[in-house]
Every structure is written in C-alpha cells, then in structure tokens.
Design goal:
Blueprint: H1 12-15, H2 26-48, H3 54-61, H4 65-93, H5 95-115, H6 119-134, H7 137-147, H8 151-183, H9 187-190, H10 192-206, H11 220-243, H12 248-270, H13 284-314, H14 319-325, H15 327-347, H16 350-366, H17 376-402, H18 407-436, H19 444-468
Helix pairs in contact: 2-7, 2-8, 2-10, 3-4, 4-5, 4-6, 4-7, 4-11, 4-18, 5-6, 5-10, 7-8, 7-18, 8-14, 8-15, 8-17, 11-12, 11-18, 13-17, 13-18, 13-19, 15-17, 16-17, 16-19, 17-18, 18-19
Protein name: MFS transporter
Biased composition (Low complexity): 1-20
Family: Belongs to the major facilitator superfamily. EmrB family.
Length: 487
C-alpha cells in the first residue's frame, strides 16, 4: 500500500507528469523542494503533536483512552485511505490547484478542531484534517521527484524530504508539550494557521502548475474498498479490547476487513487503471520496503503514545515535561535523517537500514522491563536510540521503494509506501492503546512492556528489510518486472 508519512508519497497520476516547458534552474528546483517540505512538515507534525496533549484533551472533553485513540487515528486512517486518489485528482485537475485546496481544507479543519466542543466533533474535524493532508502528501513528493531530473540529485532531494517529514514526526511531542503547557490543548490546532498562510503564499509564488500526460480515470470502487478495509482494521484494534476479541462485534469486524481487502485486490487486478498498481508487489524489494515503512511507524507511534500516558498518568509529569522527555528522540531524528539521505544517495539503502534496525531494536530493549521508578537516564537513552533509528529509516525506505523504477511508476511506489506509513501510525496507536486501556495508572509501566517488545521486533524486522534491499546504484535504472499500467 502511501510519506507521511510518511511519510507521504505520490500517486501514479501524481508523478506521471507532463515535462516542464523549460527545465527549472537549480535554485528554483531546491526552492520548490523547500516549499513542499514546509507542507510535509505540517502533515507530519499533526500526526504526532496531538499525542502529548491527549491527557489534557481527555480531561477537557471527558474522553477515555479509547476515545483518545480515535482522535489520533481518525486523522491517520483518512490520510492513508485518500492519499492515492488525491494524487489522481491532482493529475486530472492540476497539482498546484489540488495542493492549495488541500491547504485550505487542512486549515479550516484545524480551526474546527481548535473550537470543537465535544469528542465526537473533534474526531470528525480530525478526519477532515486527514482529507486535507492527503491532498498535500502525494502532490508534494510528485513535485519533488519530477523537479529533479538527475537521479543523484533526486536521491538527495528525497532524502531531505523524508528528513523533514521524519523531523516533524519526532518534534511533534516537544512542540505539543510546550503549547499545551502554555496555552492549553486547543493551541496545538491553532498553531497551524500561520503555517498554512505562509505555505499558500509560497506555493502561489514558486510552484508551477502541472498535470499528467493523460488524466487517469478515478477508481471509486477501489477507493471505497481501501478506505473501508483500513478503517475497519483500525476500528477492531481500538474497540476489541473493550468488547472482547471474540465478541460478535469483533468477529464481524474481522470478516468485513478480510472481505474488503480481498475485494479490493480483486477489483484492482481487473482494472486497466487501478487505484494502486499491485503488480509492484511482485518485486520483493518493494514489498519489503512497504512492510518496513509500516514497521517504522508502528514503532514510532507505540513509543510516543506509551511515553505520553506513562509519564503523565503514571508518573504525574506535566505535558511540557513529558514532551521535553522526548527531546532525545527528536535530536536523534534531526541529526540522522539528513545523514541517511546522503548515505542512501551514495551507497544505497542497505547501510542506513541496518543502522535503523539496530538502533530501533536497542531502544525498545532498553524499556522492556520498564518500571514505575525507571530512571531518566534510561528513558532518555531509549528515546535517543529510537529517534536515531527513525531518522535512519525514512530516506532509504523511500529510495528502496522508488529505486530502479521509471518516473511514471515511482509515483505509485511512493504512494503505496506513504499509505503504509500512515497505516503503521494508525496500527501503532491502536496497539499501544489496547495494551493500556482500562489499566490503573499505577500499572501502566507493567502493562506497556509488550509495547516496547513490539518496538524491538520492528527494529529486528528492519534488519531483514536491509538484507533484502538491492536497489541499483544511484544514477542507474533497473528493469521493472511488469509493464507500467496506463501511466
């Protein structure tokens, strides 16, 4: 399945671009990258900034852990479900037009979140935020990929793009903690307004309009089935701990999720212009990159939610203190994400993926015996290691997914990878919430230990992804196992 988050990506339509009438100059190309990176920073930030404010939101709106999970996952599930179709719309109606529309929708939904008087309205507004974010993610990477004709320059650009998105994800809790402490939980949504305003101006000035060579048909059937499969899967993970894993509600959810997934695959394989080109999964390297993207974001979101609930509920820390505790995570991501992009461009994805897996697994192992009185040094070390692992992971996974593909197919590869990131984020939140739902504050540390073991397993899986990665050296193009579908 796409960098928010990227993890966000581009769709086949989004990158089947018409060549520019005149090639962009070097300064203009990197300016376009900077503008796209600003929008992706916003998308990534809103994926995690809310986490540290969840306890305050719960107190303010009377929400339990299950309701708090929906506040986060309403955004990520809708974002994941609409990434690909938003790229197709951009191809049909113009990237800049859809990009600006996404900024407006995102901004208005942010205002609705800030003003929401109840949990239900906040969850609904978060879902609309996800729709707006889906119009930003695929278009951003599509613009970046097509603005950089040189493969080496493109690899560096993708590395920087993934770095910005990764940094925004890691910086979210720190930013959120400071805002909640100073201005209350609603401020984490108000803060989007000036960024949206600046992005609208910059896009209008610097990003040229473009469309695909040929407008693709919209696969509405595939879109409905994909969204249904994602939403039901996450709903089961959130609701089953309360209703029971073998309850009629859960069993119905399993059946619907499996049926929707099977129907989606069947529909996509029969369409000449599918929502997703499932033929890409015939490439083992690509499949492993997609699964690696899921694993990375499961690990990150499990870490963030368990940290937030443990530090604020079990240990009584303030939102600012809890956010500050994740500073080592943000530092690790900030330092290592650009380095990962450089490594991926120079030597390929294997080395940074090995580092990502090793550091993530080590960070999870540090906390598998988490206790009520675990020291700050141990916590900080674990968060630093997880941040380093996250920083090293994003760029090589994106590069692995699109490596060796012509531009018309690199788009769908990026789209599927970005959908996988958001699916991983949603599953990570749901899994972490399932572990600690209805657990007394004094037992949160013990209840969260399986979550840290899951983080460790995600890191070990990245080692397998690294072993499987065999993308061509930068500047070359490998043959593709199947012909492109109506790019």
């Amino acid at each position: 399945m796409t960098t928010p988050p990227a993890t966000p990506g581009a769709t086949p339509a989004a990158t089947a671009a018409t060549p520019a009438d005149e090639p962009l100059g070097t300064r203009r190309r990197w300016t376009v990258l900077a503008v796209c990176a600003l929008s992706m920073f916003l998308v990534g930030l809103d994926t995690t900034i809310v986490n540290v404010g969840l306890p305050e939101i719960g107190r303010g709106l009377g929400a339990d852990t299950r309701g708090l999970e929906w506040i986060v996952d309403a955004y990520t599930v809708v974002l994941a479900g609409f990434l690909v179709v938003s790229g197709a719309l951009a191809d049909r109606f113009g990237r800049c037009r859809v990009f600006r529309c996404g900024l407006v929708v995102f901004g208005l939904a942010s205002l609705a979140c800030a003003l929401a008087p109840s949990l239900g309205l906040l969850v609904a507004a978060r879902a609309v935020q996800g729709v707006g974010a889906s119009m930003l993610s695929p278009v951003a990477l599509a613009i970046v990929v097509n603005a950089m004709p040189d493969p080496r320059e493109r690899a560096r650009a993708i590395g920087l793009w993934a770095s910005v998105f990764g940094l925004s994800m890691a910086a979210g809790p720190v930013t959120g903690g400071a805002l909640v402490e100073a201005f209350g939980w609603r401020s984490v949504f108000w803060v989007n307004a000036p960024v949206i305003a600046a992005a609208l101006v910059l896009v209008a000035v610097f990003v040229p309009e473009s469309r695909g060579r040929r407008a693709r048909r919209l696969d509405l059937g595939g879109q409905v089935l994909l969204t249904l499969a994602l939403a039901v899967t996450v709903a089961v993970l959130i609701e089953a701990p309360r209703a029971g894993w073998t309850s009629p509600l859960a069993l119905t959810g399993y059946a619907v999720a499996v049926a929707a997934t099977a129907a989606f695959v069947r529909v996509e394989l029969r369409r000449p212009e599918p929502l997703m080109d499932l033929a890409l999964f015939r490439r083992p390297v690509f499949t492993m990159a997609v699964l690696g993207a899921v694993a990375v974001f499961v690990a990150l979101n499990v870490s963030l939610l368990l940290t937030t609930l443990y530090l604020q509920h079990s240990r009584g820390w303030t939102p600012l203190a809890a956010g500050a505790a994740t500073l080592p995570m943000a530092l690790g991501a900030t330092v290592c994400a650009p380095w990962a992009g450089v490594l991926a461009g120079r030597v390929g994805p294997r080395r940074p993926l090995l580092l990502a897996g090793a550091f993530t697994a080590a960070g999870g192992l540090c906390l598998v015996n988490l206790g009520q009185a675990t020291g700050l040094a141990q916590l900080s070390t674990a968060y630093l290691l997880i941040g380093i692992g996250f920083g090293f992971a994003n760029a090589p996974l994106t590069n692995t997914a699109v490596g060796g593909l012509p531009p018309a197919r690199a788009g769908v590869a990026g789209a599927i990878t970005s959908t996988a990131r958001q699916l991983g984020a949603a599953v990570g939140i749901a899994a972490a919430g399932a572990l600690v739902a209805h657990v007394p504050d004094g037992r949160l540390a013990e209840a969260s230990r399986p979550g840290w073991l899951l983080v460790t397993c995600c890191g070990l899986f990245l080692l397998l992804v690294a072993r499987a990665s065999r993308t061509p050296a930068p500047g070359t193009t490998a043959p593709v196992s199947s012909a492109p579908r109506a790019a």
